[in-house]
Amino acid sequence: MEKLTGLKKIKTAVFISGTGSNLKSIIKFSKLKKSPISINLIISNTRLAKGLKYADQFRIKKKIFNFINFKKAEKNISILLKKDKIKFICLAGFMKILSKNFIKNLDGRIINIHPSLLPKYKGLNTHSRAIKNNDKFTGCTVHYVIDALDSGQIILQKKIKISADDSSTSLAKKVLKQEHKLYPAAIMKIFN
Q1: 21/16 Cα distance (integer angstroms)
Q2: Cα dihedral sign for 85, 87, 91, 94?
Q3: Where are the domains of the chain?
Q4: Residue 192's pLDDT is what?
Q5: Which CATH architecture group holds 114-192?
Q6: What is the DSSP string of 125-136?
Q7: Helix 168-191 with 21-30: angle, nearest 10 deg
Q8: What are phi and psi of 142, to 5 degrees?
Q9: What is the reported pTM?
Q10: Distance between CA atoms of 157 and 116, rounded to whole angstroms?
Q11: CATH 3.40.50.170 is held by the domain 8-107
Q12: 88-113: per-residue pLDDT in tens?
């Protein structure tokens, strides 16, 4: 990754599909002087994403793309990223799998956060799977995005103890709390 020169922050887009709690923590982090990134664009695959409210709240450009025609959506996103000079992408609860070509064109500049200790529990329902397998620990992982699901190089992980009385809901809350700290820490690690 490129080093920061002076005060120039790296223009970043965040892709979301849901509540945007990780988006909010990344935006707050981006406002810090030490942050290497600025959030210049928020992209969602649904207008129902509650996280879009942060675009309005923090006055960040937002765009919603309909993924019914996947190729067209990705092409239009690529055009927008180029136009807005976006150099880095954070996926934060984005529930679409990006194509091999899209990922290749942004070589090594897309990261994602996943609610498990990868390579364990790729994909969905990570918390219920960890509980079902009587795991003692779970956690979250920030990793580079490659064309294999949740398989890119790991940047940072945070381990979280699973309590005997944890449900997938209580575990999800515990993990999410750590995600909000891990994502900014991973971004700092990449650019420093």
Answers
A1: 10
A2: positive
A3: 8-107, 114-192
A4: 86
A5: 3-Layer(aba) Sandwich (3.40)
A6: -HHHHHHHTT-S
A7: 30
A8: -105, 130
A9: 0.94
A10: 9
A11: yes
A12: 999 999 999 999 999 999 989 999 99
Low-confidence residues of the chain, pLDDT below 50? 2, 4-5
- CA dist 91 and 155 (Å) reads 14
DSSP annotation of 142 reads E
Per-residue tokens: 174: 């515990």
Across the beta sheet with 137-144, the strand order is 61-64, 37-44, 10-16, 88-91, 110-114, 137-144, 154-161
Q: How are the residues of the chain apportioned to helix, strand and coil, as percentages rounded to the nearest 5?
A: 35, 25, 40
Six token digits for residue 181: 């700290």
Euclidean distance between CA atoms 181 and 113, whole angstroms:
11
Active-site residues: which are they?
114
Q: What pLDDT shows up at residue 107? A: 86
- Concatenated DSSP letters of 106-123: TTT-EEEEESS-TTSS-S
Give me the long-range contacts of 162-169 (CB less than 8 A, separation at least 24).
162/130, 162/131, 162/135, 162/136, 162/137, 162/138, 166/131, 167/131, 168/125, 168/127, 168/128, 168/131, 169/127
